[in-house]
Amino acid sequence: MTKKYSLNTATAVVIANMIGTGVFGSLGFQLLGIHDFSAIIILWAVGGVIALCGAFAYSELGAALPRSGGEYNFLTEIFHPSIGFLSGWVSAIIGFSAPIAMAAFLLGTYFANVIPGYDARIIGAAVIIFITIVQSIDYRIGGGFQSAATGLKIVLILLFVTCGLVLVHPQPVSFVPTQATAVSVLSGAFASALVFVNFAYSGWNASSYIAGEIKQPTRNIPLSIISGTAIVTLLYVLLNFVFLYVAPAKEMTGVPDVAFIPAKYIFGENGGRVISLIISMLLISTISSMIIAGPRVLQRMGEDFSVFQIISHRNKNGIPVTAIWFQSAVALIILYTSSFETILGYTTFVLTLFATLTVLGVLVLRFTQPKLERPYKTFGYPLTPLFFIAANLWFMYFWMTSHLMPSLIGIGVVAVGLVVYFVANHFSVPLVKEHVKHAKVEEVKHSHTHKHKK
């Protein structure tokens, strides 16, 4: 199959997957427990460092195993098809569908700030359906839409930051670290907030889900993951700095659509409503990127297990339309049946679990397949993957102890997936190895062609 997504589109998918509900909806909750502004900036910087450590590891795996599917592909190859299947199952049921639902609901909430009276869920559902149609047509149309929407998102965020720094008299606050900063950083509130920041940074691995459909994947997967993560880290730190710089913390505390408040201080009441509308539009690229990435997991599962073959169906342009519409249908169900907090609760633990297993896979693969060709090797190995693993084990422990029931629901979803795997494995033959072999052969051919052109 011809690889049709460019480096720009792959990077746009990473950036758009990351910038969404987390950064536009979590500062208000962080301020409930953290009152030192330096600690909040450190919080977002630390989250970026952790994400970058994960990005380095995924880049090595994406370049060495350039097949679509993300964790499903990596864990199947490194550990066992059952582990890969479970990660794919989680991605199919909640991994992408739940964040799509959250982004759609937040989009509707921001939109309602401008035109009151509209139901946020109806607006969100309409956006999900529209983007699903766009991404079901053609690579060129879908990729162009994604690149344009993400480029606009970056420009508008930078414009927001610039106006905040130039046009507004700042709040009487200090960002210089003090002894109080150290106390805040070591507090339970900081630990809790870091879990939410970790969620805000999720999506840095997005291009690995479409690895088999990216041009020159051994080169472009690492570039898209690392550059996308670095860009988002910078934007997150700048954006939260401006939020705190221009608006009173007491007005933002506990507010879900927190960006609306600093927007009012920068552009006035009416201007704030316009910015609120713009932010709702920015979330369109977030939803679009997840509608691109997520269905590739379902598509690969359908190719590997004959009982799921119907879900791997592609249209004449090679788009996995059945998987796309299935994922969007699940997102619509979640949108109308769950709250923001509930969705976040049962997705956080299991998504962190599979990301941790995947980064651990870098260490395992170095040991089990030392001669495997690695076009990119993890920066700072083995310290960076070990730091990522340690941070995520701490996340999971903290989240499990403070959110036991939501974590158990997430684990329950995994347990159901294990039953489905054994049933699927009994009634169909998993063809994972053949597909991986085919992907590698295609990559070798593409690499030789590229070298010859040079």
Could you give a quick summary of the protein structure above?
By secondary structure, the protein is mainly α. The protein is built from 19 helices and no strands.
Give keywords:
mainly alpha, disordered C terminus, 454 residues, Amino acid/polyamine transporter I, single chain, globular
What does this 3D model show about the protein?
Mean pLDDT is 82; it is low at 430-454. This protein has a single domain, classed as Amino acid/polyamine transporter I (Up-down Bundle). The relative contact order is 0.20. The protein is mainly α. The longest helix has 45 residues, at 260-304. The protein has helices at 7-18, 21-25, 27-30, 37-64, 71-78, 81-95, 97-114, 120-135, 139-167, 179-185, 188-201, 217-246, 249-252, 260-304, 321-337, 340-368, 383-402, 404-427, 432-453. 76% of the residues lie in helices and 0% in strands.
Gyration radius (Cα, Å) is 21 Å
The parts where pLDDT drops under 50 for at least 5 residues are: 430-454
- Report the end-to-end length measured between terminal Cα atoms: 22 Å
Helix content: over 70%
CATH class: Mainly Alpha
